[in-house]
Amino acid sequence: MKHLNYLVIALLFLIGASESSAQQRGFGLGVVIGEPTGISMKWWRSSTRAIDAGLGWSISQNNTDFQQSRFHLHMDFVRHAYNAINSSERLPVYYGLGASVAGGSENESSLALRFVLGLAWQPARTPIDVFLELAPSLEVIPATNFYLNAGLGIRFFF
Q1: Do residues 158 and 132 lie in contact, with contact meaning Cβ atoms separated by under 8 Å?
Q2: Whole-prediction pTM value?
Q3: SS3 8
């Protein structure tokens, strides 16, 4: 749990150090289904940059082929490329870096670095976005391991 404390402090520092310019669409809250499944949040920091975070449950499989449920928290700093897909709809491709922590009652917590790649649909004149993302992750604590997070979600912007 000591590693979780260090990650929370680091993430709070990064939020405070991030650029603060006009927000594009404010703060969004919604759900994501996949690995992990839970709550999704996005906070626009400029017209192309945002902080993307999630809190949910992840199903992992340990060395004995036993599945276990773990909480999962991630935060990513993402940039949106609105000109990547030529369409009459707003379909930005987004990418970025972040970190995740996971833990459960029967295992120690873990820390991973994430690379996020996603596609969002932002319908005109509606305060929602629908997204699909992949996040290859490199676990660095307690051991080095590679895994893939993926999710489909929707958020409402306030």
Answers
A1: no
A2: 0.78
A3: helix
